[in-house]
Design brief:
CATH superfamily of the largest domain: Nucleotide-binding domain of ferredoxin-NADP reductase (FNR) module
CATH topology of the largest domain: Rossmann fold
Number of helices: 9
Largest sheet: 7 strands, antiparallel
Shape: globular
Structural class: alpha+beta
Strand order of the largest sheet: 1-9-8-13-6-7-10
Distance between the termini: 9 Å
Order of helices and strands: EEEEHEHEEEEEEEHEEHEHEHHEHHE
Helix content: 10-25%
Number of strands: 18
Strand content: 25-35%
Radius of gyration: 22 Å
Length: 399
């Protein structure tokens, strides 16, 4: 799945959370009005911005002549030495040699983040590129597997990687990276720690002149052939990580390519069964798609359902083929509403985590459905949801 909200560099959606831009070419005075750090020896500045202002701040930095070289969730930005005001001639220290502070070490949770950055991406190779939409479906969605055996790229389920498409934009500048959810477990599709996989839909739309336009990065990925090079950055993201509890209940709500992280979860839970993780809880996937032919990874999902009927439930919402209780199209939020009482009961357990990934439009319908279930129990869904978020049991990544 690709996140297009933060134009230019790309990031995931975290609502009101804060993010940090690493900017070069600006001094502290240039970023007045923002929560900016001192200028580092490297000539770069950190600018903190709320998610809903990321696009505006990006445009403002560009107008001021700055260049964004990195975007990080607040608290995950690199901790580098600051410039000395008493000795401006001191040469910049090599960034790679900067040692983490004791405080940074204490905060290290072992989750890999930004091993490869835009200025020095990992160049892997495409190993395979397979179509996921069956005949009669709409759009073009590909499952891509990349070789990462020649580098140090490590990741865990629920993270994303960046892809930098080759070439330049209409202004002659290199294309910016796009972020995509990883669709494989930390061990890869071949379970050998040497690959990473993505689920990519080709962006296609009509411009004002009626011309068909394709997404730069999605078209590049969908057209890849085995052996082609791919520039990869990351990994990034900690919002969608699985809990370590093997007895957890995992509720997954996906539309379209939002299935990507959940495929990784399900492989981790049921296909691998490594000695360090043997899932024993309940996994319930709600998957919204327009046609049966658009059920991505259908064979894999239904095989898991047959093999693990006590631990895996699969519920489709096929909007163009099924009807909801009111006779309208069956969307994912309708399925959530149908099962709201059971979902509510599951959420009462501290072992239950809910994950949402896909189109932002489904959030309101899901909240509406669960509000009804909460009211039956004399509770307020909005307040309960806040408790879930505070306990890190309600995870959302929408676009």
């Amino acid at each position: 799945m690709y996140y297009s909200n933060a134009v230019g560099v790309g990031t995931t959606t975290y609502g009101s959370r804060l993010f940090v831009y690493e900017v070069e070419g600006l001094g502290n005075k240039s970023v007045a009005g923002s929560d900016a750090s001192k200028t580092r020896k490297s000539g770069r500045t950190f600018v903190t911005v709320a998610y809903n202002r990321m696009n505006q701040e990006m445009k403002r930095i560009t107008r001021l002549g700055g260049k964004i070289v990195g975007i990080y969730p607040a608290g995950e930005e690199p901790k580098m030495a600051m410039a000395s005001s008493s000795d401006p001639s001191t040469p910049p220290a090599p960034e790679a040699a900067a040692a983490p502070t004791p405080a940074a070490k204490k905060k290290d949770d072992g989750i890999p983040v930004n091993i490869y950055r835009p200025k020095n991406p990992y160049v892997g190779q495409c190993l395979s590129n397979d179509e996921l939409v069956a005949e009669g479906g709409t759009g073009r969605v590909r499952h891509l597997k990349f070789d990462i055996s020649g580098g140090d790229l490590k990741y865990v389920e629920g993270q994303s990687i960046g892809i930098i498409p080759p070439g330049t934009d209409d202004k002659g500048k290199p294309h910016k990276l796009r972020l995509y959810s990883i669709a494989s477990t930390r061990h890869g599709d071949d379970v050998d720690d040497k690959t990473v996989s993505l689920c990519v839909r080709e962006l296609e739309y009509k411009n004002e002149a009626g011309e068909t336009v394709y997404g730069t990065c999605s078209r590049f990925l969908c057209e890849l052939n085995p052996g082609d090079d791919v520039a990869i950055t990351g990994p990034v993201g900690k919002e969608m990580l699985l809990p370590p509890d093997e007895d957890a209940n995992i509720i997954m709500m996906a539309t379209g390519t939002g299935i990507a992280p959940f495929r990784a979860y399900l492989w981790r839970m049921f296909k691998e069964q490594h000695e360090d993780y043997k899932f024993k809880g309940l996994a319930w996937l709600f998957f919204g798609i327009p046609y049966s032919a658009n059920i991505l990874y259908r064979e894999e999902l239904e095989q898991l359902q047959r093999e693990f009927p006590d631990n895996f439930r699969l519920t489709y919402a096929i909007s163009r083929e099924q009807q909801n209780a009111d006779g309208g199209k069956m969307y994912l939020q309708n399925r959530i509403q149908e099962n709201a009482d059971e979902i509510w009961n599951l959420l009462q357990s501290e072992k239950t985590h809910a994950y949402m990934c896909g189109l932002r439009g489904m959030e309101g319908g899901i909240d509406e459905g669960l509000s009804g279930a909460a009211e039956k129990q004399g509770a307020n869904w909005s307040e309960f949801q806040k408790q879930l978020k505070k306990a890190h049991r309600w995870h959302v990544e929408t676009y």
